[in-house]
């Protein structure tokens, strides 16, 4: 698909503008096929968002064609890729309800363009960070992105997906009121909507004027172009393609392996949370020595050792211990906001009990009983459940391999 001899251009872009998603999608599919592009494009009634790769000439044609459909100037964040590899397996255009899923569709549509926070250039954003008093600097990306790199002093709202932003706002609005709030994300798209949502809430509380909300225009991407030494950004900028990250100038590794806590900041499609499948930082050494490859994200770290996806490798004794600790965890999860947690735990507890029952019914062979013998089962991919030798995590998102003919 891509010319293998030439370097390629990767563009990251978005535009919020009332649109007809169906006709945008049709136009995109045509462009992708005609120009031999690869990438991911989302279209919605509120606009477009994409990461697209192609050779320089094709990308220039693509940009001009897309711009024609939008009245406001699109900010094309370009980077050169010299690896000669397709960063995506194909070109996929998806029609979605929201470009950034807050789960708000229908209930209270936001006018993102009119309601979003004041945009600051990288230089303005940088200067404001010089005086951190009374500031609330918030990273509106997911925790697995924050963990490999973020601005000094930034708050991590602890999200595994964007739909958790409204909950963070609800729980923290009292603390934010009367402060200067600064938001940032990878390329700017999430801040537009996150700031609009926050300002709507502040307005409802009559705190709109006393609480200025700013957003970093062009996101970390543009900031690192303006401050090649990293400025106030530490670590790497996670990106949603096979590069997985773009390193900032300061070269520090701020991520930590969730197993050994050693410095590590490279995500891998085969190293995901066994509970929620969010990416988890695990170093190569720990991954190589793990027989099962089941890991836990920060949100689910208290389930380590109690919650496993694959149960067939455990003995009766081990399963009984798991059932016991799952029950204890379940007893601790009280309150309406823990309902999802309780459901997750309950479901797993039932699976463990079922498995135990199955083992107890199974005829026992010879001397070794399932009570003490660990069953030997090879490691499997957490996402697709195939043996890991067949799928070392290449079914996950943008790591997905191009289908073999
Ligand atoms: Zn490690
Ligand atoms: Zn998790
Ligand atoms: Zn897989």
What topology emerges from the helices and strands here?
Blueprint: E1 8-16, H1 21-35, E2 38-44, E3 47-55, H2 56-68, E4 77-81, E5 91-95, H3 112-115, E6 118-120, H4 122-129, E7 135-139, H5 143-146, E8 149-151, H6 165-176, E9 180-184, H7 189-204, E10 213-216, H8 219-226, E11 233-238, E12 245-247, H9 284-289, H10 316-332, H11 339-361
Parallel strand pairs: 2-5, 6-10, 7-9, 9-10
Antiparallel strand pairs: 1-3, 1-4, 2-3, 8-11, 11-12
Helix pairs in contact: 1-2, 6-7, 10-11
The protein binds zinc ion (ZN) (3 copies).
List the keywords.
405 residues; Rhodanese-like_dom_sf; five-stranded mixed sheet; TrhO; Thiosulfate sulfurtransferase/rhodanese-like domain-containing protein 2; four-stranded parallel sheet; Alpha-Beta Plaits; binds zinc ion; single chain; Oxidized Rhodanese, domain 1; alpha/beta; 12 strands; Rhodanese-like_dom
Question: DSSP strand (E) fraction?
Answer: 15-25%
CATH topology of one domain: Oxidized Rhodanese, domain 1
Helix and strand string, N-terminal first?
EHEEHEEHEHEHEHEHEHEEHHH
Unreliable stretches, pLDDT < 50, 5 or more residues? 366-372
InterPro entries: Rhodanese-like_dom (IPR001763), Rhodanese-like_dom_sf (IPR036873), Rhodanese_C (IPR022111), TrhO (IPR020936), TRHO_N (IPR040503)
Protein name: Thiosulfate sulfurtransferase/rhodanese-like domain-containing protein 2
What is this entry, summarized?
By secondary structure, this protein is α/β, with parallel strands linked by helices.
């Amino acid at each position: 698909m891509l010319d293998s001899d030439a370097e390629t251009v990767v563009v990251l872009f978005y535009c919020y503008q009332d649109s007809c998603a169906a006709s945008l999608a049709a136009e995109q599919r045509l462009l992708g096929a005609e120009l031999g592009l690869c990438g991911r494009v989302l279209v919605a009634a509120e606009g477009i968002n994409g990461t697209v790769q192609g050779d320089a000439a094709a990308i220039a044609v693509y940009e001009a064609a897309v711009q024609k459909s939008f009245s406001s100037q699109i900010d094309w964040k370009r980077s050169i890729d010299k690896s000669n590899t397709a960063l995506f397996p194909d070109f996929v255009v998806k029609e979605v309800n929201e470009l950034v899923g807050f789960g708000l569709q229908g209930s209270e549509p936001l006018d993102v363009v009119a309601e979003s926070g004041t945009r600051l250039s990288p230089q303005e954003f940088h200067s404001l960070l010089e005086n951190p008093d009374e500031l609330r600097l918030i990273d509106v990306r997911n925790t697995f992105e924050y963990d490999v790199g973020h601005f000094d002093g930034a708050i991590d709202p602890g999200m595994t997906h964007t739909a958790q932003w409204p909950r963070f706002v609800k729980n923290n609005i009292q603390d934010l009121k009367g402060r200067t709030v600064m938001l940032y994300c990878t390329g700017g798209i999430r801040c537009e909507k996150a700031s609009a949502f926050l300002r709507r809430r502040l307005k409802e509380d009559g705190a709109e004027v006393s609480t200025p909300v700013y957003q970093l225009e062009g996101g970390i991407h543009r900031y690192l172009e303006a401050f090649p030494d990293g400025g106030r950004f530490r670590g790497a900028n996670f990106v949603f393609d096979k590069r997985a990250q773009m390193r900032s100038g300061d070269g520090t590794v701020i991520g930590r392996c969730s197993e050994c806590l050693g410095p590590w900041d490279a995500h891998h499609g085969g190293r995901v949370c066994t509970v929620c499948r969010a990416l988890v930082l695990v170093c190569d050494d720990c991954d190589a020595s793990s027989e099962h490859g089941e890991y836990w994200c920060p949100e689910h770290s208290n389930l380590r050792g109690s919650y496993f996806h694959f149960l067939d490798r455990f003995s009766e004794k081990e399963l009984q211990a798991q059932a016991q600790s799952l029950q204890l965890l379940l007893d601790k999860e009280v309150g309406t906001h823990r309902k999802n947690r309780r459901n997750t735990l309950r479901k797993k507890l039932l699976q463990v009990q079922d498995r135990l029952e199955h083992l107890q019914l199974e005829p026992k062979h010879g001397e070794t009983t399932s009570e003490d013998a660990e069953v030997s089962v090879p490691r499997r991919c957490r996402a697709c459940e195939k043996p890991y030798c067949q799928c070392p995590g290449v079914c996950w998102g943008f790591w997905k391999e191009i289908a073999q003919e």
